[in-house]
Amino acid sequence: MQKEVQRSLLDRLARYVAWRVFISVVYITGLTLLIPLVFLYIFPDQVEGLVLAPSPVILWLSLAMVAAGFIVTLWHTKSLGGSLKSLGRITFVPGLIGLVFSFFGRDTMLLYLAGTLPKFQQAQPLLETYLDNAVPRVRFLTFSLFILGALLWFVGDKLERDAAMLLRRR
């Protein structure tokens, strides 16, 4: 009997962790898609003819992923405050990735990408244009993700505290 309870508890914990990881990945991917999307819309001439040409599909896909992350987190936590707080914490991740890329600089990133991308020579002009022109503008977006994360976390925490205070008064 005790082993069944432990197994049940372990199963629930595993499902909880799997859902959290899955939703976090979906939400972060949606936010991270927004970073190159800014570049694609700012410099459409540079990507003409490539598979990555600016498309509203990327925008809608990223928005759908962010919305799905929010809805499932809300369903899971059953609390708007808890959901906003949770999403606020993981919103920092795309901002951190953007800051890491901008911190290491253009040449370091090009060397790294040359070693990892299979057809780097074909994409090199696009990547150089991106790193030279879009990264300074994307820093604003990266900073915005940190602000959004802090705001979500703050509002979520405030809503949780207000809800707890209302429950104590009853």
Look at the helices and sheets and give the structural class: mainly alpha
**Average pLDDT:** 78
Low-confidence stretches: none
Oligomer: single chain
Number of helices: 5
- What share of residues is helical? over 70%
Total beta-strand segments: 0
**CA-to-CA gap between the ends?**
38 Å
Strand content: under 5%
Number of domains: 1
Order of helices and strands: HHHHH
Categorize the overall geometry. elongated
Radius of gyration: 20 Å
How is the biggest beta sheet arranged? none
Q: What does this protein structure show overall?
A:
With 170 residues, the chain is mostly helical. It has one domain. It is 88% helix and 0% strand. The chain is built from 5 helices and no strands. Helix 1 packs across helix 3, helix 2 crosses helix 3 and helix 3 packs antiparallel against helix 5. The two termini are 38 Å apart. The model has no long low-confidence stretch (mean pLDDT 78).
Kindly list the characteristics that best describe this protein:
5 helices, 88% helix, mainly alpha, single chain, elongated, 170 residues
Short overview:
With 170 residues, the chain is mainly alpha-helical.
SSE order and pairing:
Elements: H1 2-42, H2 56-77, H3 80-104, H4 106-116, H5 120-169
Helix pairs in contact: 1-2, 1-3, 1-5, 2-3, 3-5, 4-5
